[in-house]
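tool=predict chain=A
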Amino acid sequence: MDLIRIIDEKDQGTAVKNYLKKEFRMSGGLIRLLKEEGGLLLNDRVPYLSDKFVTGDRLSVSLQCAFGQSDLLPFDAPLSVLYEDPWMIAVDKPPDVLVHPVTYEENGTLANMVRMHQINKGEEYTIRPVSRLDRNTSGIVLFAKNSYIQHILQLQGREGEFLKDYLALVTGTLDKRYGRITNPIGRKTDSIVEHEVTDTGKEAITEYTVIKQYRDF
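tool=predict ok
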């Protein structure tokens, strides 16, 4: 994939690096990688990141170097692919499966299944989870095939452009059929994994609807 721009008057005098950050929302790390790998051309030559544009300049950005490669172990198990294109893949994670390997569980995770799928298709890219779910939670998980796409999707997630719906069984009875929870959530002081409602946490908004009320759940 190439991103091509012809520079107009409003961007004359803008440095290449600043333009890439503003126009494509690229990270500094990706910009440096593009420069080092020759994925950045200004009028068919490799520019300095400090070069200033002149009206009519042609900027070409090749994202081929942003795919990378994977060293994950493949795991052959049924994988439900909900959507896939050259830039991302969305899969249905079953319950009791980790999203990606950890030190005590290096295989059998969703990422290892995606690796097997990747090999079967003859593709090569670093497997980058954009979203994650707890081991016991099933649902949609996004993987980016390209570091630029991963960066953009993560930005969209932080800016609230993703709508996440969860279906859950809850013990007890809720007083209201509809509700909105706005308590801040932060990491527990004695854990590197668990989170809790805390005054020092980040803003978290959850809107819920009771679909059905059983006797005690």
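The longest strand covers residues 88-93. The chain has a mean pLDDT of 92.
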